[in-house]
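Researcher: Here's a chain I'd like modeled. Treat it as a single chain, no partners, no ligands.
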Amino acid sequence: MTIAAAPFAIRLAALALALGACTAGAQQVYRIVGPDGRVTFSDKPPVDPGVKAAPAPVVAAPGLAATGNAALPFELRQVAGRYPVTLYTGPDCAPCSSGRVFLSQRGIPFTEKTVTSDEDVAAMERLSGGSAALPLVTVGSQQLKGFSEAEWSQFLDAAGYPRTSRLPSGYRQPEPSPLVVAQPLRAATPTAAARPAAAAPAPAPALPPGNNPAGIIF
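Model: Modeled as a single isolated chain. C-alpha cells:
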C-alpha cells in the first residue's frame, strides 16, 4: 500500500485513510523520502538502503484523550467529530454510574461533566431547558434525560457509533470536569446586559436515511 505524491488534498485524504487503517490494525506507517526528494507513505519499510524512512506520526482526534500513540480508528473519529457525546453526572447518582459503565463498555468516546455546585445546577437547567435531571447525555444536538440503555443505544446507532467497542487498548477517557469552571475574581465584571450573547451552535449534519430508521435528527 504505497501512496505516491499527488495534489495536496488527495495526499492528505489518502494519508488520513492510511493512518486510520494503521491504527485499527496496530501497523506502522512509514514516511519515505526518495533520492529525488519525492515523499511517499507506505505500511512497509523501504528495501532500497539509499532511501530515508521514518515512522509517520499517529495523531489522536482533537479533544479526545489517548495514551501514548493509541488513537481512535478513522471511522470512529469521524463519528465522534460529527456527533460528540457528553455525559452529565452528579454525586451519589446510581443511574449516572450505570450510564457511564454503558458508554465505556460499548466503547463510546465521551466527555463527562459533573454537576455539583449551585452554579453547575443553574447551568444545567439552562442547558436542558428545565429541571437538572441526571444523568443527561447529549449525542450531537440531541439530549436524553435519565438513563435508558434502549434509548441511548437507539440514538448512538442512529449517529453511526459501532455497537461493539473499537477503542484501542491504550485509550483513556478524559477525566471528568465541572460543568462550570470557577473563574478568578476580577476588579470589575461586565453587567449581564453588556455581556455578548453566546453564539448558537452550528447544526450537526443530517444522517443518511439508511442509517437512521428511527428518523432521529441531530
